[in-house]
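[Meeting: bench + compute handoff]

Bench side (C.D.) handed over the final construct sequence. Compute side (W.E.) agreed to return the predicted structure before the next meeting so the bench team could plan truncations. Sequence as handed over:
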Amino acid sequence: MFNAEKVRNDCVQWIRDFFEENGKGCNAVIGISGGKDSSIVAALCVEALGRDRVIGVLMPNGEQADIDMAKLLVDTLGIRHYIINIKDAVDGVLNQLPFEITDQTRQNLPPRIRMSTLYAVSQSHNGRVANTCNLSEDWVGYSTRYGDSVGDFSPCSHLTVQEMKAIGRLLGLPAVLVDKVPIDGLCGKTDEDNLGFTYAELDRYIREGVIDDPDKKAKIDRMHRMNLFKLQLMPAFEPEI
């Protein structure tokens, strides 16, 4: 049985310990999308460090339909924040590419520019960048390598979506943030539409090894195998010297 209160308290202490060892007095810098993951990570950091040491960064790519959710989060937590529109940077790169641009390139460039933006903010504010991924997304590779898949510390990458929601409720976040239908931010579809299975099904399979549909099991297993490289360190040749 998942004990949300214990995990919440342990995670808050883990964040404190990380900053004590890897950035005493530093600030936590978090990309705020308006979704549950960044909301919960930001709230955990506020509990661990205090709101004065947490900086939210909102990074729309032109117009963002749900940016009001991101603003709700920073207002609810009372944290300082910056709104940095990345459209000029994204368009600047795309306009300079001298070849036909694939859909995958268009979809993955913005999260990589967002991560560069977070590090620009972090280095100017004595910061450490928070990774906001969860276990369910990581399991099937639902992140952009060198985009939202990276950071300096990761409070929730071993927690499933259902576990994240339970912690979000304990933290007292508005229900509209905790239960917001996740949209991938790349092509505008919901995560579950893209994946072909629900997070509830995926989470049960991860934790219990149980899934009712053999086709969905095969798809999850295939996606997990194909995307393991995203969770591993870059392979490096080791010469025999």
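W.E. noted at the follow-up: The beta strands are 27-31, 54-58, 80-83, 127-129. C.D. will use this when planning the next construct.
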